[in-house]
From TrEMBL:
It comes from Pigmentiphaga kullae. Keywords: Receptor, Signal. InterPro entries: BUG (IPR005064), Bug_dom1 (IPR042100). Transmembrane segments: none annotated. Gene3D superfamilies: Bordetella uptake gene, domain 1, Periplasmic binding protein-like II. The keyword Signal applies. Pfam families: TctC. The keyword Signal applies. Residues 1-23 form the signal peptide. Coiled coil: none annotated. This is Tripartite-type tricarboxylate transporter receptor subunit TctC. Belongs to the UPF0065 (bug) family.
Length: 326
């Protein structure tokens, strides 16, 4: 009986092997879904839709963006973790991928064990913005005003674990000040209340704030990169404006579910690298203040190493702040 079971298992593996190889060779034979674990219209969604369009030609198939927001991005991320490892369901996620283990006590997936990394895509700096009638005129005045009026000011963010939340957390820690923080269910409603002057200030990605800044609908003070960005050259860096060493970049990466065959991952890597070198994609990202990652960073090895280092970086900070999401 034992020998018969071993023989059946061996035959099954022999049959499945060529079929799996054939499936990888034919990949993709139908549209690919790229899950964005946030609402449509937000900064991560903007990156995803631009990347999906740029990957269409090198993949030879349409890449459909599916928004599945909720629980700080963990809902959509968990959906991809449970998806079939066939290359037809991908995840475009940002820095929150590496902060979730410290933020959520009952995370339904393991960011290292449940995914196959494809590569880093873009890095997006943040901007410190305030309602249009905020009293301060410069970043130095902004710092002084926040410290002096901390009991009456409110800082918006797109929810616990969001990029704006993480930037705000670092900012308040850097200036050793606490203000009322107001979490929203996404960047869009937070920005709407900012435009409506119902909240005072917010730190958010250039992909979401550039349009409002250029339209003079909000007051902008500084960027979180270490060098000024071409799309918003009038804004100083926080470092040069007085908050020495302050830097926050919201990186975005692409993943597939665990078990996705290596030949499929290789095709995705090649398609993503081609997309990152597409002139239209690079221009779109430049207009939004985002930095496209070089090919050497758009690899599974680079993304895997980066995620592990980011988990080590953010975990202690989040635990020290005592911030948890159920």
């Amino acid at each position: 009986m034992f020998k018969q079971a071993v023989l059946i298992a061996a035959l099954s593996a022999a049959i499945a092997g060529p079929q799996s190889a054939g499936a990888a060779q034919d990949y993709p034979s139908r549209p690919v879904t790229m899950v964005v674990p946030f609402a449509a219209g937000g900064p991560t969604d903007i990156v995803a839709r631009s990347l999906a369009e740029a990957m269409r030609k090198p993949l030879g198939q349409t890449v459909v963006v599916e928004n599945l927001g909720g629980a700080g991005g963990t809902l959509g991320t968990g959906r991809v973790a449970r998806a079939a490892g066939d290359g037809y369901t991908l995840l475009l996620m940002h820095i929150g991928f590496s902060t979730a283990p410290a933020l959520y006590r009952k995370l339904q997936y393991d960011p290292i064990k449940d995914f196959e990394p494809v590569g880093l895509a873009v890095d997006v700096p943040m901007t410190m913005i305030a309602r249009h009638d905020f009293p301060a005129s410069s970043f130095g005045e902004f710092l002084s005003y926040v410290r002096a009026h901390k009991k009456t000011l409110s800082m918006a963010n797109a929810g616990i674990g969001s990029a704006s939340h993480l930037c705000g957390l670092l900012f308040l820690s850097a200036i050793d000040t606490d203000v009322q923080t107001i979490p929203y269910k996404g960047t869009a409603p937070a920005m709407n209340d900012m435009l409506g002057k119902q909240v005072d200030f917010m730190c958010d990605q250039t992909t979401n704030t550039s349009g409002q800044i250029k339209a003079d609908k909000v007051k902008a003070y500084a960027v979180t990169a270490m060098t000024r960005i071409a799309s918003l050259p009038q804004l100083p860096t926080m470092d040069e404006a007085g908050l020495k060493g302050f830097e926050v970049g919201i990186w975005h990466g692409l993943w597939a579910p665990k078990g996705t065959p290596k030949p499929v991952i290789d095709k995705l890597v090649n398609a993503m690298q081609a997309a990152l070198n597409d002139p239209a994609f690079k221009q779109r990202m430049s207009d939004l203040g985002a930095q496209v990652e070089p090919s050497g960073r758009a690899t599974p090895q680079a993304l895997d190493a980066h995620v592990k280092s980011e988990i080590q970086k953010w975990g202690p900070l989040i635990r020290k702040a005592g911030i948890y999401a159920d």
